[in-house]
């Protein structure tokens, strides 16, 4: 089943945006399991060509004033919102997610673009810094682009995480070589198409497609900086390869995200909100909640309300807004989810709702599933399921809840629900995660683009969004100007006398607060 937006003419245009030769592969229409699109497949030689083209284009782009670069992104923002139905069609076709989740996904690049249009002039402008000797030496900090940035984006949010990362890289004056997941290349290719329609200089954004270890590895081994979103296992390998070249990297990796439900919550409202935090995009979201810790005084009441809300979710395959949840994206994802649930059930866990694949809806559908009585020997206890599965656990005190939530090597996202927001926020500060949402699952923190977003522990390095989301694509350069010679004494001044004068000057600078 091909969506209406994916015409032969559009597909032909998207193919031209791939740096590749004659080899091809075919992606899957997730709702049916049939063929979706035949696309060019790149080789390592094509990756070399992509970087050569991008390097040439980047020199002129970096030399242009920021005021000349930003109008491209103003036009892109308009084009994105105007063509939102086409974007949503492509996202759904290649991921199987619901229309609601597809719309939420396309909002991310819109928010990011708007934010950096507003803040980039301030973040990238030269800044005066205190010189060594006031009046005698002046210093300024400049921001220079890295060069050619490699972006490797995942299959679960192919449009948001490709465009949301490459836009600030381009705004900062870099070129980009993008390697999206092969199954989900259509929507990022359409994003590239919109950027070029908005006036992005030719060759500045290159797209390569192919096997992750081979083509992705070539991108890592060639770029001046690498941004990656994906599994912790692959992220560790990328960090090692980048480190050997002394190339910086930003990695958003896995999560086993906790939610804490304190004893003063409004149970019905919390259960409804928690359902979204757990099952958006069929749980295929790095920020999704997979563990819910509930105060034991309300555990049974919350479990009942949560299961009831979960049961209201509508699952279907379609290009309208009727479904709450769509499909998993692949047979591999379905296999992992089924294994985790079957393993938990076999070892004594209780399935409160769900727990079954739904081939009647599509080849990769799986019911939203709620488990209790999950124990450490079960796969879903500590490992990331990355699907519509969540486990409920009781706790007796805030201290116990924090300890249980932190009992993981991951540290990406967390959530705390409580009627007393001050108390809930205080609990949140004790969680070892990059983002914490109070009375929400994930969207409040992620959607606040002025605030940094990323992981602790094995959940990653670096941050997207905020100042760091742009500045990580730059090198800080200091230019210091000596106006009066102060660092070398004249030949006629004895060096011993010079050291006494300098020591006295340093004491004075310390006393009057100069640096």
Secondary-structure map:
Blueprint: H1 8-15, E1 24-29, E2 34-40, H2 44-63, H3 66-82, H4 84-95, H5 99-124, E3 127-129, E4 137-145, E5 148-152, H6 158-171, E6 175-179, H7 186-197, E7 205-207, H8 212-220, E8 225-229, H9 232-244, E9 248-252, E10 257-261, H10 267-279, E11 289-295, H11 299-311, H12 331-346, E12 350-353, E13 369-372, H13 379-382, E14 389-395, H14 398-405, E15 413-417, H15 421-428, E16 435-438, H16 443-447, E17 460-461, H17 466-471, E18 474-482, H18 495-511
Parallel strand pairs: 5-6, 5-8, 6-7, 8-9, 10-11, 10-15, 11-14, 13-14, 15-16
Antiparallel strand pairs: 1-2, 3-4, 4-18, 9-17, 12-13
Structure write-up:
It is a single chain. The protein has 515 residues and is an alpha/beta fold. The protein folds into two domains: 8-125 and 145-253 and 466-475, Aldehyde Dehydrogenase, Chain A, domain 1, CATH 3.40.605; 257-449, 3-Layer(aba) Sandwich (Aldehyde Dehydrogenase, Chain A, domain 2), CATH 3.40.309.10. It is 43% helix and 18% strand. The strands form four sheets. Strands 12-13-14-11-10-15-16 form a seven-stranded mixed sheet, with helices on both faces. It has a six-stranded mixed sheet with strand order 7-6-5-8-9-17, sandwiched between helices. The radius of gyration is 26 Å and the shape is globular.
Short description:
This protein has 515 residues and is α/β, with parallel strands linked by helices.
Entry keywords:
515 residues; alpha/beta; Aldehyde Dehydrogenase, Chain A, domain 1; Aldehyde Dehydrogenase, Chain A, domain 2; 2 domains; 7-stranded mixed sheet; 6-stranded mixed sheet; 18 helices; 43% helix
């Amino acid at each position: 089943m091909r969506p209406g937006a994916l015409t032969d003419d559009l597909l032909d245009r998207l193919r031209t945006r791939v740096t590749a030769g004659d080899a091809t592969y075919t992606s899957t229409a997730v709702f049916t399991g049939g063929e979706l699109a035949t696309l060019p497949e790149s080789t390592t030689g094509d990756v070399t060509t992509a970087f050569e083209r991008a390097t040439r284009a980047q020199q002129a782009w970096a030399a242009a004033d920021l005021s000349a670069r930003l109008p491209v992104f103003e036009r892109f923002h308009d084009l994105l919102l105007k063509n939102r139905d086409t974007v949503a069609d492509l996202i759904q076709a290649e991921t199987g997610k619901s229309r609601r989740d597809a719309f939420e996904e396309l909002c991310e690049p819109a928010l990011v673009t708007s934010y950096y249009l507003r803040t980039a002039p301030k973040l990238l402008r030269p800044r005066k810094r205190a010189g060594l000797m006031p009046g005698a030496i002046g210093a300024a900090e400049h921001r220079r682009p890295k060069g050619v940035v490699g972006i490797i984006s995942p299959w679960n949010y192919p449009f948001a995480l490709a465009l949301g990362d490459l836009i600030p890289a381009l705004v900062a004056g870099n070129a980009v070589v993008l390697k999206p997941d092969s199954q989900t290349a259509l929507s990022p290719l359409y994003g590239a198409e919109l950027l070029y329609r908005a006036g992005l200089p030719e060759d500045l954004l290159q797209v390569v497609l192919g096997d992750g270890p081979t083509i992705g590895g070539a991108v890592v081994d060639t770029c001046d900086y690498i941004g990656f979103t994906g599994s912790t296992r692959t992220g560790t390998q990328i960090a090692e390869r980048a480190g050997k070249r002394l190339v910086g990297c930003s990695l958003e990796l896995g999560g086993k995200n906790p939610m804490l439900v304190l004893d003063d919550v409004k149970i019905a409202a919390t259960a409804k909100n928690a359902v979204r935090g757990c099952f958006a995009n069929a749980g295929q979201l790095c920020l999704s909640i997979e563990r819910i810790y509930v105060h034991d005084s309300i555990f049974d009441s919350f479990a009942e309300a949560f299961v009831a809300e979960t049961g209201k979710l509508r699952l279907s395959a379609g290009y309208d807004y009727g479904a709450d949840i769509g499909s998993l994206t692949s047979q591999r994802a379905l296999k992992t989810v089924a294994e985790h649930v079957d393993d938990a059930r076999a070892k004594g866990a209780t399935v409160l709702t769900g727990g079954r694949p739904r081939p009647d809806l599509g080849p990769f559908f799986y019911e939203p599933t709620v488990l209790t009585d999950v124990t450490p020997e079960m796969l879903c206890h500590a490992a990331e399921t990355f699907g519509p599965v969540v486990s409920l656990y009781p706790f007796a005190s805030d201290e116990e809840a924090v300890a249980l939530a932190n009992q993981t090597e991951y540290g990406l996202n967390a959530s705390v629900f409580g009627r007393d927001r001050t108390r809930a926020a205080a609990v949140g500060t004790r969680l070892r995660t990059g983002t914490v949402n109070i009375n929400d699952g994930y969207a409040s923190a992620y959607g606040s683009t002025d605030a940094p977003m990323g992981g602790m522990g094995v959940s990653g390095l670096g941050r997207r969004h905020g100042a760091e989301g742009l500045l990580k694509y730059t090198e800080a350069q200091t230019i210091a100007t000596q106006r009066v010679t102060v660092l070398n004494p004249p030949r006629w001044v004895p060096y011993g006398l010079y050291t006494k004068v300098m020591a006295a000057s340093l004491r004075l600078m310390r006393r009057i607060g100069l640096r």
